[in-house]
Specification:
- The chain has helices spanning 6-20, 28-31, 50-60; strands spanning 32-39, 47-48, 68-78, 81-90, 96-106, 112-120.
- The protein is α+β, with helices and mostly antiparallel strands and 128 residues long.
- It has one domain (6-120): Roll (Nuclear Transport Factor 2, Chain: A), CATH 3.10.450.50.
- The longest helix has 15 residues, at 6-20.
- The protein is globular, with a radius of gyration of 14 Å.
- The model has no long low-confidence stretch (mean pLDDT 92).
Length: 128
């Protein structure tokens, strides 16, 4: 594959949401390469490799049953790289809202080798 197209990126994002709603971290192997570099914010240290991503993934969520809605829009696709705008709203005991930009790099098999997230919450300082 010379690159990804918009449809492939949309399917990948849908798979990410399904994985977040699924117990365990086994679905991550379908989405991410074994040596993935996952950056959960622009200031964080990357999580490198599926063996480290799985435990982090499980620790970051309240569980696969946590109530949330997620919408996405593919902003750009160029070769093996895509930019996606994400909106997530969590409900329940600790409600929160997020707007994210994801920068995704894919391998020839369509798995993500580089994930970079730029998350913003409504009350978060934004430099003003």
């Amino acid at each position: 594959m010379a690159g990804v197209d918009r449809g492939a990126v949309e399917r990948w994002v849908a798979g990410y949401e399904r994985a977040w709603r699924t117990p365990g971290s086994e679905p991550l192997a379908e989405l991410f390469s074994p040596d993935v570099s996952y950056l959960p914010s622009p200031w964080a240290r990357p999580i490198v490799g599926l063996s480290r991503l799985g435990p982090w993934w499980d620790a970051e969520r309240d569980g696969p049953d946590e109530p949330f809605t997620m919408t996405s829009e593919v902003v750009a696709v160029d070769g093996d790289t895509a930019v996606v705008r994400i909106e997530v709203e969590y409900f329940g005991d600790d409600p929160s809202r997020w707007r994210d930009l994801w920068i995704l790099r894919f391998d020839a098999d369509g798995r993500c080798v580089g994930f970079e997230e730029w998350p913003f919450a409504p009350d978060q300082p934004d430099g003003h």
